[in-house]
Design brief:
- α3 crosses α4, α3 packs antiparallel against α7 and α4 runs antiparallel to α5.
- The chain is mainly α.
- Helices cover about 65% and strands about 0% of the residues.
- It contains 8 helices and no strands.
């Protein structure tokens, strides 16, 4: 696995915060180049999803950039990843909540209704992981 694309992310890595809410994220993200936006958002998404699934991606601060990550996957020639991510965002309702607490509350309501053993988004999670590894040569080839 090569990470040649990292050279484009590294200069902005510490300048774009996913930890300080959507307004801060969107303001800082807007200052990046188009290439940096694509690589930054797709890198965070694939990294979190491959590490802990869609649940981890949406439960963590990274969920703030889900709409940008979906667009990024399209731009990387990974429309299946983009589609799966957008479908998984619908779990949270018609207006995707960038706020982490809101997403956590939706997950908690799901667990209260269906139990702790039922994993939300499991089917989409498996499909997403497979596409990250395979679509357009896999994420790392597409990003490079």
């Amino acid at each position: 696995m090569s990470d040649k694309y990292w050279q484009f992310i590294e200069p902005i890595w510490d300048r774009i915060s996913i930890y300080d809410g959507d307004e801060t994220f969107l303001g800082q993200f807007a200052e990046a180049t188009e290439k940096q936006k694509v690589l930054f958002s797709s890198h965070w998404a694939q990294s979190e999803i491959m590490n802990g699934g869609l649940g981890q991606f949406f439960s963590n601060n990274t969920g703030v950039l889900a709409p940008e990550a979906a667009t990024a996957f399209e731009k990387l020639g990974m429309p299946k990843c983009a589609d799966i991510l957008r479908k998984s965002m619908q779990f949270f309702g018609t207006a995707y909540p960038r706020d982490r607490l809101t997403r956590e509350q939706i997950f908690e309501s799901f667990r209260e209704q269906f139990g702790e053993k039922v994993i939300p988004l499991l089917e989409l999670e498996d499909a997403m992981a497979a596409e990250i590894e395979e679509e357009n040569g896999g994420y790392w080839d597409a990003a490079n």
